[in-house]
Amino acid sequence: MFDTAFLDIPALRAVSGSVRLPGSKSISNRVLLLAALCGGQTTVLDLLDSDDTRVMLQALRQLGCGVTVEGSTAIIDGLGGRALQPQAELFLGNAGTAMRPLTAALAVLGGDYRLSGIPRMHERPIGDLVDALRALGCSVRYLGQDGYPPLHIGQPHLQLDRPIPVRGNVSSQFLTALLMALPLAASEQDVVIEVVGELISKPYIEITLQLLARFGVSVQRDGWARFVIPAGSRYHSPGQIHVEADASSASYFIAAGALSASGNGQSGLKIEGVGEASIQGDIRFVDAARLMGAQVESGPNWLRVTRGAWPLKAVDLDCNHIPDAAMTLAVMALYADGPTTLRNIASWRVKETDRIAAMATELRKLGATVQEGADEIRIAPPKDARAWRAASLHTYDDHRMAMCGSLAAFNPAGLPVRIEDPKCVAKTFPDYFETLFALAEPAAPVPVICIDGPTASGKGTLASEVARRLGYHYLDSGSLYRLTGLAARRAGLALENPDEARLSALARQLPVGFAGGHILLGQEDVGEAIRTEAAGMDASRVSALPGVRQALLELQRSCARLPGLVADGRDMGTVIFPHALLKVYLTAGSAQRAERRHKQLISKGIPAKLDGLRADLEARDARDQNRVASPLEPAQDALLLDNTHLTIEDSVDQVLRWWQERQPFRPS
Ligand SMILES: O=C(O)C1=C[C@@H](OP(=O)(O)O)[C@@H](O)[C@H](O)C1
Ligand SMILES: C=C(OP(=O)(O)O)C(=O)O
User: Fold this and answer.
1) How far apart are CA 360 and CA 369, in angstroms?
2) Which CATH code, of 3.30.230.10, 3.30.1330.20, 3.40.50.300, 3.30.420.40, is assigned to 446-472+564-668?
3) Neighbours of 18 (CB within 10 A)
4) Which of 13, 301, 529, 559 could disulfide-link to 475, CB 3.0 to 4.6 Å?
5) Do the Cβ atoms of 367 and 389 come closer than 8 Å?
6) 93 in a labelled binding site
7) Which position among 46, 51, 246, 324 bears the catalytic label?
């Protein structure tokens, strides 16, 4: 997950390859609650791991359920037959699929519970569900504003002899919540639910009914108006249940496939884990994407997408049945041949944010002309490539605003897009951006920042912090020869009389990684191992081999991957990345550098003398600067940063300021 203030996505050209997406949020949270409500043990496979499922799992633990999670498998020991924890304070984040169904289940079971969430959850309506529960004889009290969480739940006096009315025009989750809770009360008599007025987001009710059936409860229904839970209904664990990949999450990749430039014999993007046999309503997004021109082939649990019509075709659609995935259509509309209208989406206004207002504001920043209606949005795309704007997109703590925003990176103007607060995707898809970057091809070389400078100038500390702040990869080029030597020793290759071809092959494939101050060879942290005297000797042996130098040049260039790279060393800006967008040459006075090195050594328990260190540094500077082959010198277009009197934070801020000056957008 990108835990940065913002994430700049360079312009993208295409996506290809194949991807397995994380589990469906709607299925995961329903299955977890149903498994908790029935007796016995349920093994849930391919469970989604995200904020929404974590709050549900935590709530179930607090209620006394046995919960074991290992990787993507959860084992739930249901409460059926066991005492429910009679009192609990449950924090449910911003998960509608946890707040609404848990409210109903706990209200029917009774106890002393407080349910709350993040501030936005306290602005998301729940009044229609509370009215229905009160009509049923449940005790539910508002602890803040009437009609909204937080809530207190007490002991019920259930009255099941008349139909329970529920309104479904604000959220279908209220009906879902009742359908999941009432089998707990239907042992003696039929329980009837009647929907008052219109019901929105109907396919989510289908998911609920399908999963109830998997847990042994078959609901009888009369269209969308009346649902009967037959007397004697009881939950039975299916033993094991598998969660499909999330169809709403798939919408971003279906869109990316439809926006991808074709060519290079590409056969499109394959999405695995969800397909035409899905029980999720958002799989119908595929029909909408096809209407806009996407080419989508499908099997029971896979999809393959390629670009079809180009530009995409504008559409005018009722999107009530796909409220979440419809947001993706709003961004696809930027690439259409005319204005697109998405209708019947009033529920967008009461989700993670007011999504109609948010979408209108952000798409306008990109150059679109957008009209907002009470329950619709009309998007006219930028009139040509020159009308696109590079924008810093605000994401309103809404995962879908962030994921949708990334699709603007396919713009024909080759502009980057900035996503503010990218970690908000954690609600349903924590690794969304990593997944996108693994499939995407940039439209131009990815951005590189080079930080070169003499020994002990602090370039490693500076470069790795700049990388962390931008969410970029980090390359510590100086360690590569040491790593090659170490890998060679471990592979049993002789270094005294070396086989250049084999060593070069090894260097080309070196599995290096730099993360959080650690230097990795494969999965192993070798930070200490490469700093020994012997490793230094080996480094100097391998670095004398031209084949190895060439291999490492390629390896270094291959580190320039999405979304960008910060590379530190001595020849990053001059030799390895001559076209880098920002080159910094970092220096500090020799007295200062000697002092830093001295502190470093002493803190590691290595004895050292300040005077000696300074003399060594100065001698090494002179050698490095005066050698004939690639002497240490600033690239012609490098900016000089003397950090003798700067803190690390000052230097980081300076480099980030220079970087920002080179960006086409300003923060919003
Ligand atoms: O039941 C569900 O799993 C959901 C129902 C939909 O909400 P509404 O019924 O409020 O539209 C959808 O937007 C939400 O992401 C998940
Ligand atoms: C509306 C959404 O979430 P929730 O389940 O919290 O309603 C969503 O995921 O888009």
Assistant:
1) 8
2) 3.40.50.300
3) 13
4) 559
5) yes
6) no
7) 324
Is 323 near ligand 1, meaning CB less than 6 Å away?
Answer: yes
Q: How far does residue 214's CA lie from ligand 1's centre (Å)?
A: 20
ipTM at complex level: 0.99
Q: What is the CA radius of gyration of the chain?
A: 29
pLDDT digits (tens, 9 = 90+) for 82-101: 778 999 999 999 999 999 99
- What pTM, to 2 d.p., does this model score? 0.96
Q: What is the pLDDT of residue 511?
A: 92
Ligand closest to Cα of 30 equals 1
Task: For residue 202, say whether it is annotated as part of any ligand binding site.
Answer: no
Ligand closest to 56 (CA) is: 2
- Please say whether the structural domain 473-562 has been given the CATH code 3.40.50.300: yes
Does residue 668 register a pLDDT over 60? no
Pair 433, 425: CB distance under 8 Å: yes
Is 172 a known ligand-binding residue?
yes
In tens, the pLDDT along 553-609 reads 999 999 999 999 999 998 999 999 999 999 999 999 999 999 988 988 888 888 889
Task: Please name the fold of domain 6-22+246-442.
Answer: UDP-n-acetylglucosamine1-carboxyvinyl-transferase; Chain (3.65.10)
Which CATH superfamily is 25-242 part of?
Enolpyruvate transferase domain (3.65.10.10)
For residue 327, which atom of ligand 2 is closest to its CA? 10
Spacing, Cα 96 to ligand 2 middle (Å): 6
User: What is the rounded CA–CA span in Å between residue 598 and residue 591?
Assistant: 10
% of the chain with per-residue pLDDT over 70: 99
| Nearest Cα residue to 577 out of 462, 463, 660, 441 | 463
Catalytic status, residue 431: no
